[in-house]
Amino acid sequence: MNIIRNKKPSVIFLEVLLILIILLGILLRFTNLDKKVYWSDEVFTALRASGYSEVEAIQGIRSKPFVNSIDVQKYQYEGEQSSTAQVVIESLATEDPQHPPLYFLMSKVWMRWFGDTVTVRRSLSAVISLLAFPLAYWLCIELFNSSLVGLTMIALIAISPFHILYAQEARQYSLWIVTTLLSSATLLRALRKDSKYLWFAYAIATSLSLYTFLLSVLVAIAHGIYVLTTEGFRLSKNFVSYLVSTIVAFVSVIPWIWIVVNSIAQINRTTGGNKRLSGLGFYLTLVKEWIVNLNRIFIDLIFDSGASSNPLSPLTILLMITVLLSITVTVYSIYFVHKTTRKRIWLLIGSLIIINLTALILPDLILGDSRSMISRYFIPAYIGVQVAVAYAAAEIIRRFTTNSWKQRTKLYVMAIVFTLGVVSCLVNSQAQTSWIKGYGQLNHLVAQVVNQSERPLLISSSISSDILSLSYYLDPKVEIIARPVCLTCRTEFKLDIDTTFLQSIFEKYSDVFVINVKLPSEFDNKFKYKSVFLPNTRTGRSDGSSLWRLETNTN
């Protein structure tokens, strides 16, 4: 009660508002989980968790001349003989070694306990994302010893479009956010208490993070630089404890590191590594994506970062305004933290940001790669940015006085950022797709067209996960000639459609659709391709797609 009495009424009001924002963020994480497009990466999660490799799925689908949606979805569920953890690990190690197994094993257990619907698969990430709230609060208490900063940090995460989008994905990135927060908070507590039990807890947290996502190594390096610097660049007891704990964590991950080291070529092939891009256009695109991705942790009102080719269009102007707002808040907050806090505070925030940015951006600038365009790789840096913004916002609230126009302006700017964040999340909660989705994000629209036909035939040589994703939206009546290609397996599959057989059964169908495939030249004289236009959810117009309708050539 004394604490409440000592607070200004304006501060109490704003704290209540932050709590309401947090409650809204919790609700939005579970809103329309089943309505979001189930895309390729999520298919891979279910494939691995169900104990199948991609090559097994492709061989099974290709073994039949015709399949339907039910046949294809078999590879999203455990078979008659339940898979073991070893099967899941072997599937990842062979085909997808850049993804450590922790989340996939958790997903396997989750699906076995609660079912294997799309909603259940995604609910694991949504539930995990809630753990970020207490951990973010703990981190802020360790850094600033301020409950207001912790509450503000939770609110920022709660209505961050970036965090909510990944909380609704059946992928491991919500878990990576949680383990990054856990390891950082545990490190600070261990440094403060100097307890061997806490250092052991830090080793476990770091190990869990490494088994979630390999870029956690950057977090461990940032922590090391932080400890070494705060200890005066000497071999102190704290730095030795950090080294021992980190070594223990890395030793626990040696089996997976060994797999990764022996699979570099496979990883590069799967992730598109070893690209060599250059030129002014490439570097401008890099910078644009970095800025837009930063904006999305606060505000995400535009689906496509390339909002319009017209620089004066309303969409482009809106994007520029929100980007400028996010950059201003970020730069000011980092400066404010550095100016007003002790070294042990701002150095951790700076280490998380700088190490993550440098490790991803420099190779792209030097080698011409494009991995730094992928926003999820910057999660540790984004956490650092959000901690800085939370501190700045909390201090603005705490110091607020109506007599100062500077304080009023700062509060209004922060209020606008929070408001636009809430609006972004409300808008995104009703959208079926988003910028984080790649292969398969238009499959619901493709299926709408195909399902309208009376007796449709679909011919596809898409990647296997794209066909699996599409199967969730196709009616069982749709017959499919599926010749999927492999994204992650080491086996090459060619298009082996028997043209004589296909011509003999062609007239049985009211419509024949082709997606992501060019049929053999024997068909050119008899049939023609007609592009099927799908509605663009961003512009409202219809755009050409990879779906084609085969029609009789009357020429």
Descriptive notes:
By secondary structure, the chain is mainly alpha-helical. It has a domain at 2-30 and 131-430. 61% of the residues lie in helices and 5% in strands. The protein has 25 helices and seven strands. It has helices at 2-5, 9-29, 40-49, 54-62, 69-73, 85-95, 102-114, 118-130, 132-144, 147-158, 161-167, 173-193, 196-210, 216-230, 237-252, 254-261, 264-271, 280-295, 314-340, 343-367, 379-398, 405-430, 443-451, 464-471, 499-505, and strands at 456-460, 479-482, 511-515, 527-531, 534-535, 542-543, 547-552. It has a five-stranded mixed beta sheet, with helices on one face. It has a two-stranded antiparallel sheet with strand order 5-6. Strand 1 (456-460), helix 24 (464-471) and strand 2 form a beta-alpha-beta unit. Helix 2 (9-29) packs parallel to helix 10 (147-158), helix 9 runs parallel beside helix 12 and helix 14 (216-230) packs antiparallel against helix 15. The longest helix is centred in the middle third of the chain and has 27 residues, at 314-340. Mean pLDDT is 88; it is low at 1-5 and 305-309.
